[in-house]
């Protein structure tokens, strides 16, 4: 048991040294993968989500279910949907499916949906005369509503830690295992030239 504890202490200490030394040694980008289950939990915190246009229309989406689309570098999400308001005349429920890319917004440290595409929309009980209008306009409205939607905010503490280590957020890649996040070495500050 003592051997195991010593080995763990060496591993933890070595990992700390490597993490601190990486930027100093200019070892290049560092990547880690957030598993799909952890992504699901993080995104679920943003829902239920409500959006209204006065008393004309209210949209509520909840219960996100994630799928990974690594071949397209996108994430797919199915959501339960409820529409109500004077414009609808009644309340309708159903599901909406969409897929999207991700981007980082440095102004507020958020990870946002981008290039949202609605892939399916099913509303139960919508009268036949309104089906065409709903199928034509609801997907466009949803794409506009969710494009640039913030899914997660990275804490200032985590951003500062990465910066202290000499790294900045580089990009995202959807894999079969989850979301691969790459941290790139921060560019060296430009040297001041004296003349």
Written account of the structure:
With 195 residues, this protein is α+β, with helices and mostly antiparallel strands. It has one domain: Bactericidal permeability-increasing protein, domain 1 (Super Roll). 31% of the residues lie in helices and 43% in strands. The protein has four helices and nine strands, in the order αβαβββββαβαββ. The protein has helices spanning 2-25, 36-44, 128-146, 156-164; strands spanning 30-35, 49-53, 57-69, 74-84, 92-105, 110-123, 150-153, 167-174, 178-185. The strands form two sheets. The protein has a six-stranded antiparallel beta sheet. Strand 4 (74-84) and strand 5 form a beta hairpin. The termini are far apart. The model is unreliable at 1-24 (pLDDT under 50).
The structural class is: alpha+beta
Q: Indicate the radius of gyration in whole angstroms.
A: 23 Å
Assigned CATH superfamily: Uncharacterised protein PF07273 family, DUF1439
> Kindly, what is the distance between the CA atoms of the first and last residues, rounded to a whole number of angstroms?
63 Å
CATH class term: Alpha Beta
* Beta strand %: 35-45%
Unreliable runs, pLDDT <50, ≥5 residues?
A: 1-24
Signal peptide: 1-21
Keywords: Signal
Protein name: DUF1439 domain-containing protein
Organism: Rhodoferax sediminis
